[in-house]
Amino acid sequence: MFSILNVVCLSLWAFLGVAASTNLGPASVNLGTAANFAILAETGVSTVPQSSITGDVGLSPFGANNFTGFSLTLDSSGTFATSSQVTGHLLAASYTAPTPATLETAVSDMQAAYSDAASRVSPDFSELGGGAIGGLVLTPGLYKWTTGVSVGPADVTISGTSSDIFIFQIDGTLNITSQSSVTLAGGVLASNVIWVVAGVVTANPGTHVEGVILAQASVTLLTGATMNGNILAQNFVALQAVSVHIFIRLFLILLSLVGHPWCRRTC
Ligand SMILES: *[C@@H]1O[C@H](CO)[C@@H](O)[C@H](O)[C@H]1NC(C)=O
Ligand SMILES: *[C@@H]1O[C@H](CO)[C@@H](O)[C@H](O)[C@H]1NC(C)=O
């Protein structure tokens, strides 16, 4: 039986193989410990149930009172909470040590990553499509818009290999039009797709987004939106019955599969 696990193992070996070769596009952006969070925000994270989040959710400097809609259960250690909507932990600056320090470092790493990504110069593509990028196929590179950007009504395809890097610098807002998607092609990894956005980010109902959103303002995902990646916002994150999955977790699961005796035999 050529199982899904087999495919997973093969793609992982392919990924490890090409990781050493030179990438196309700019140098990667170091997220530091912010990469450990599916969602990291500074002023609040809200959900209108039922959302589904895989990965940890962090909030700092505001405290747990600014988690809204999660029906939190505080762990007896006092260092984190859980929620039926989160496969992972919720951490807030108001929780017991070492959580505040962990979050302070993660937020500082998030801000540094934003500054790095936003300050890259000499874009390969400037003002592409006048900010209307629905229907385009984007190749590796540094992209710069001094305006807002909208995805849709046709999907946007991000095309390249697993080692290629994409940085999208957006001075205005990022809007994903209802029912439109950002899709990856050719083995591109969501962790190599960086959206660095100065204005608010809105994923409208039924949309799909891939990548790391480094937002200077807030990020809102409306009903039925799905996201593969991290939302790292310097203001708040608002979710309405959405699904957010962090790829780093999946990657760690894949690594553990490769280490598994069954996989060593068959991969
Ligand atoms: C965070 O909580 C404060 C009150 O403690 C409130 O004024 C503020 O609006 C909240 N912000 C968010 C984004 O929820
Ligand atoms: C995104 O939507 C907001 C309102 O929802 C609007 O003010 C803004 O101009 C839109 N931006 C783009 C680039 O479409």
From TrEMBL:
Q: Which UniProt keywords apply?
A: Membrane, Signal, Transmembrane, Transmembrane helix
Q: Which residues form the signal peptide?
A: 1-20
| Keyword Transport on entry | no
Q: Do you know which InterPro entries this protein is assigned to?
A: Ice-bd_prot
Q: What are the TM regions of this chain, as residue ranges?
A: 236-258
**Family membership noted in the UniProt record:** Belongs to the ice-binding protein family.
Designated name of the protein? Antifreeze protein
